[in-house]
Amino acid sequence: MKAIVDCNSFYCSCERLFRPELNNRPVVVLSNNDGCIISRSDEAKALGIGMGGPFFMARHQLEKNNISVFSSNYHLYGDISMRVMDSLRSIVGEKNVEVYSVDEAFLGLDEIDPHELPGLAHRLKETVETWTGIPVSVGIAPSKTLAKIANNIAKKDKQGTGCIHLLLTDPSFHQALKKTRVDAIWGVGRSFANKLIDLGITSAWELSQMPEEWACRNLGGVVGQRLILELKGKPSISLKKELEIKKMITTTRMFGRQVTELSELKEAVATYTTLAAEKLRRQNSAASQIQVFLVSREEDHLAGYHPDNHQSTNLPAATSLTHELIRPAIRLVDQIFKSGQAYKKAGVLLSGLVPDGSIQGNFFSGPSQARDRRLMSAVDNLNYSMRSEMVKFSATGIKKDWKMRQELRSPRHTTRWEELKEVS
DNA sequence: TCTGGGGTCCTAGGACCC
DNA sequence: TCTGGGGTCCTAGGACCC
User: Fold this and answer.
1) Disulfide check for A329: which of A197, A229, A273, A320 has CB 3.0–4.6 Å away?
2) Are A173 and A38 in the same domain?
3) Is A28 helix (H, G, I), strand (E, B) or coil?
4) CA pair distance A110, A26, nearest whole angstrom
5) Using 50, 70 and 90 to split pLDDT, how confident is the model at A29?
6) Which of residues 338-367 of A have CB within 7 Å of strand B?
7) Which pLDDT score, from 0 to 100, does residue A303 have?
């Protein structure tokens, strides 16, 4: 058996922790750059605020309904997320928790007596809520995909289910499948859903009755095949181990305004490279390839890949050192940049990742490498313990006029001393 | 005027090797 | 005049997730 534990309106719930007067009131949280609405409290949903809609278009509606609006505060959400996951680990054991995203985790429950599952579900919910203050929903079923469906049922009828739903027997999940539309299945996106509906397959139940070979041919090969098995209650997507090493690392951001100056683009790309390099060192990897891309205003509506605006280079040797990554990154900006072009977004992608310990050296790398690495880890430690850019490379700029907008961000209550909540 | 960011997995097809 | 076949690795692109 598998469980999924999912935080309800996670970002909104985090904001409410320090603003209890917002409980039972409508709240929304915006994406980076205050672009879209990415989290809504139940009250905001009830007022008709859509998911993923642009902030500027909803602004009037938000004001009219006196809805509280926050920019995203990832320092806060990341810290609260860790506490939620630690609570789950303390109940089912570290090896049975797969952190699936910032606000949800799959749990492996094969060692638990099925009779104890309802009690466990309640204990999970109550413990997380008591220890962290974040409300959660729990779904339990034989496979991950069915657990997701159970969780959706729990969330859809919070009063009726108490945010807990279990699908432990065949009849119970058959019933649930009949009530679930194909486009609501985990693993079925827009394109597969359209395809299925065109074929007259509208419910999860109908999909589960299709032959595996058919799914293999029509739903993305083994992915589709696994999906059918999962819907039948045969677990085919296993729990992933913690600490899997990422195979590529990217940092991309919109700018707060259009950027036309080469010098500003270089600052931004140097800043993103610094962030990506920190992520790289955190998992003890080194990169052997770096790619940079700039997105201009004009091509924004043309979705996808534009070779003109992407350049990549193979590094002479894999590295995790920020300055060895910034240099080639900036050269790539020079190659891509077109004078007179207005850019709205840039990104850095590190790939060809290898373990940092066993880097294939080359003729030209000298003994300074070891010293540089000690320097980097000192910088990381300082920045980590202060939770800020205590020490940084001058190439990343000082003023950062291009930085994204975050006009409505709440204080970083749990990660910055100077922003600690005061209670009098 | 303003529409996020960061990932994963899988497949097809080309390059290359023996 | 005749010109194989199987395997591996890499990359681009499509699909999906939160």
Assistant:
1) A273
2) no
3) strand
4) 39
5) very high
6) 344-345, 347
7) 41
